[in-house]
Amino acid sequence: MSAPAEGTLRAIATFVAAFGIGVATYITIADSGGGAPACLAGGGGCETVADSSYSHILGINVAVFGIVGYVLLVATALLRGDAARMAGFGISLGGFGFSVYLTYLELFKIEAICQWCVASAVLMTILFGLNAVRMVGYVGRPG
Amino acid sequence: MSGKSAREERREERLQQESEGERQERRRRLLQIGAGAVFVAVVAVAVVIVVVSSGGGGGGEVDLEDTRLVKNELSGIPQEGLLLGRPQAKVTLWEYGDLQCPVCKAYSEEIVPEVIESEVRGGAAKIEFRNFTIIGPESVPAGAAAIAAGMQGRGWDYLELFYRNQGTEGSGYVTDEFMTEVAKGAGVPNIAKWNKDRKSEKMISEVEATTSEAQRLGFTGTPSFAIEGPGTSGKETLGTPGSAGTIEEAVEAAG
Questions:
Q1: Residues paired with residue B93 on neighbouring β-strands, in sequence order
Q2: I want to staple B97 with a disulfide (CB 3.0 to 4.6 A). Which of A9, A29, A111, B223 is the partner?
Q3: What residues 224-243 of chain B have any CB closer than 8 A to a CB of chain A?
Q4: Percent of chain B surpassing pLDDT 90
Q5: Which residues of B touch A93 (CB under 8 A)?
Q6: Is A79 contained in some domain?
Q7: ipTM associated with this complex
């Protein structure tokens, strides 16, 4: 089975990463106001997660790292060549690993689920999939 | 002419093959790097999760115990301030306690849960915690923090979780960090508000007021209990009952 056209993968990745920037920016803005993202289905999951000691690393909200990651992923999706393919794969792999860690914290340490964090984890998983297919399918090839 | 052209064609073909070979080699190398990165990422995530789950890092310094147990003990019971139970319950029990007091901790673990289950959950009585600070100065901020947690509907979660994680008397464990972890564990929704409330003059005065009230009632130790219901003549003191059964009997007599 051949990989989808690289242009298609890049276009989808650009869209998904841009959406990720939106989600991570919302979480960052909600947190910077001293509050927490609003959970759409009610419940205090988002507040519990935002108030937990795990929500910041060295005083920086983890969502800020998310924004940086998604911006870099937009850049790698827009660029051509092996450097962009490898960088996109590496960054999305890091983001995916970080999302696995954060989801573990939500489930087993904080014991609360924030939909916005889940949304970001899903987006990062999709981006990892897209970048993995792009890398395996096209790295070392012209374009 | 044609011989030279054929040679050039062969040369170009060879160069093309060489360049294709180089490309394949480069692709193989890059794919190896990718596979290596996946391996490193899997190991890194596994190591971080193992370290965090063993309490070695990541979150706060205080590792709370019994968070789930307290949650289960109080689940489904209404709370308002430091009052636990249905507001319309005929009998009111008061516990005058000090969060730093080891005997109160023992009551919180062995006697109070039984009373909550048998009398409060069913609606026969409601129980209110009032601060009676006798152990030391740190009991005041600890008690004020409980009232502040009560303002967000998590007062009893805070009290029970504090007792379950109580440190050695006078060891200085009642730090801002400890109380914050207890509040988080208790599920206080807005920690920033709780932080502001617990330090307010109003909260401190309330702790002092209930301490004076306990002294007026003639209590000299913690925990001390009082009760009021249709069967009592006003608020009656129970002192420090030795068992859950004694409190349950008092509730029945008062009801």
A1: B127, B227
A2: B223
A3: none
A4: 66
A5: 37-38, 41
A6: yes
A7: 0.82
pTM: 0.54
**Residue A37 lies in domain:** 6-138
- Which residues of chain A neighbour B37 with C-beta distances below 8 Å? 89-90, 93
Sign of the torsion formed by the C-alpha atoms of B143, B148, B153 and B157 = negative
> Do the Cβ atoms of A137 and A6 come closer than 8 Å?
yes
The confidence score (pLDDT) of residue A51 equals 66
Distance CA B99, CA B198 (A): 15
Collapsing DSSP to helix, strand or coil, B127 comes out as strand
pLDDT tens figures, B201-246: 999 999 999 999 999 999 999 999 999 999 999 999 999 998 999 9
- Interhelix angle B67-74/B155-164, nearest 10 degrees: 140
Helical segments of B100-175, H only: 102-110, 112-115, 139-150, 155-164
Of A94, A97, A140, the CB nearest to B26: A140
Q: Do A141 and B23 touch (CB under 8 A)?
A: yes
Q: Cα A13 from chain centroid?
A: 11
For residues A132 and B37, give the distance between their C-alpha atoms in angstroms, rounded to a whole number: 11
List the 158-187 stretch of B: residues with Cβ below 8 A of A. 181, 184, 187
Give the residue on A whose Cα is nearest the Cα of B37: A90
Domain definitions of chain B by residue range: 1-59, 67-254
Are the Cβ atoms of A86 and B34 closer than 8 angstroms? Answer: yes
Which region among A16-30, B62-76, B89-103 has the lowest average model confidence (pLDDT)?
B62-76
Residue type present at position A58: L
Interface of B with A in 36-95 (CB under 8 A): 37-38, 41-42, 44-45, 48-49, 52-53, 58-60, 67-68
| The pLDDT value given to residue A76 | 97
SS3 B206: helix
User: How far is Cα B171 from Cα B44, in angstroms, rounded to an integer?
Assistant: 38
CATH number, span B67-254? 3.40.30.10
- The closest of B17, B89, B176, B111 to A53, measured between CA atoms, is B176
> Does the beta-carbon distance from A93 to B181 stay under 8 Å?
no
Q: Per the structure, how many domains does chain A have?
A: 1
Give me the pLDDT at residue B60, please: 46
